[in-house]
Amino acid sequence: MSPRTGETIAFDNVGLRYGTDREVLSDVSFTLYPGSFYFLTGASGAGKTSLLRLLYLAQRPSRGGISMFGTDVITLPRSRLPAFRRRLGVVFQDFRLVPHLSAFDNIALPLRVAGMREADLAGPVSDMLEWVGLTSRAHARPATLSGGEQQRVAIARAVIGRPDLLVADEPTGNVDPEMALKLLRLFEALNRLGTTVVVATHDVHLLRKVPDSLIMRLDKGRLSDPTGALRYPPRRQMSDIDADAPLPRDGGEF
């Protein structure tokens, strides 16, 4: 899957409340440009997970507009949601692995849904298992994996289909610093191939590891813009991106 030139993701004055409670997100407006890398930061309870749920179409806003890839998703019929979601990769904070499937089969799931032939699955899934350091755990089911191993399987599953948008909620929270940096390099490699990446994190050290990244900060449901991420397109344009290049093996450099 190759990201489509010029297609952005835009929130316009979005508000979100659950039931009759106060808004958890208020007047949120921004544009995510194709092939850009964003960190979403904020204290616990600031609304990061709620914003991500809107991005990966698990939640509709209470007010405002959201367009993704040229489509108004507020009015998108439910019948079109599954195909639309296949353009997204999501790393959930609670992993959401399929319990009866092995690590290999969990990672292969997006490729099978996309219609890849079984004969063609082994190569890319094995490469991804090698990247996240789980080759020896390929046939293990989630219940036998540690929290960090489950997180790595969840990340591999999210990126293997080369999504147009990758959304990751605290993706390095259960791994050691060395693996955290390796996983961040995987996100950066995918980003260099044209995927728009949004990583929610409270780890300020990660923010310094991706030089071209932009930072969005949530405070009590409102978005601030310390790096100008919401006002200007990223320096790197889609014309600079080779969307058909393979992911480098084992965290390799470009």
Order of helices and strands: EEEHEEHEHHHEHEEE
Order of strands side by side in the largest beta sheet? 6-7-8-3-9-10
Q: How many helices does DSSP assign?
A: 6
Q: What share of the residues does DSSP label as strand, in percent?
A: 15-25%
Approximate shape? globular
Membrane topology: Peripheral membrane protein
Organism: Allopontixanthobacter sediminis
Main location: membrane
Domain ABC transporter: 9-245
Topology:
Blueprint: E1 9-17, E2 23-32, E3 37-41, H1 48-55, E4 63-68, E5 71-72, H2 81-85, E6 88-91, H3 103-113, H4 122-131, H5 147-159, E7 165-169, H6 177-192, E8 196-200, E9 214-219, E10 222-224
Parallel strand pairs: 3-8, 3-9, 6-7, 7-8
Antiparallel strand pairs: 1-2, 1-4, 4-5, 9-10
Protein name: Cell division ATP-binding protein FtsE
GO molecular function, one term: ATP binding
Function: Part of the ABC transporter FtsEX involved in cellular division. Important for assembly or stability of the septal ring.
Write up what this structure looks like.
- This protein is α/β, with parallel strands linked by helices and 254 residues long.
- It has a domain at 1-87 and 163-174 and 195-230: 3-Layer(aba) Sandwich (Rossmann fold), CATH 3.40.50.300.
- The protein is 25% helix and 22% strand.
- It has six helices and ten strands, in the order βββαββαβαααβαβββ.
- It has helices at residues 48-55, 81-85, 103-113, 122-131, 147-159, 177-192; strands at residues 9-17, 23-32, 37-41, 63-68, 71-72, 88-91, 165-169, 196-200, 214-219, 222-224.
- The strands form two sheets. Strands 6-7-8-3-9-10 form a six-stranded mixed beta sheet, sandwiched between helices. It has a four-stranded antiparallel beta sheet with strand order 2-1-4-5, with no helix packed on it.
- Helix 3 packs parallel to helix 5.
- The radius of gyration is 18 Å and the shape is globular.
- The relative contact order is 0.21.
- Residues 1-5, 237-243 and 250-254 have low confidence and may be disordered.
- Residues 226-254 are annotated as: Disordered.
- Homodimer. Forms a membrane-associated complex with FtsX.
- Part of the ABC transporter FtsEX involved in cellular division. Important for assembly or stability of the septal ring.
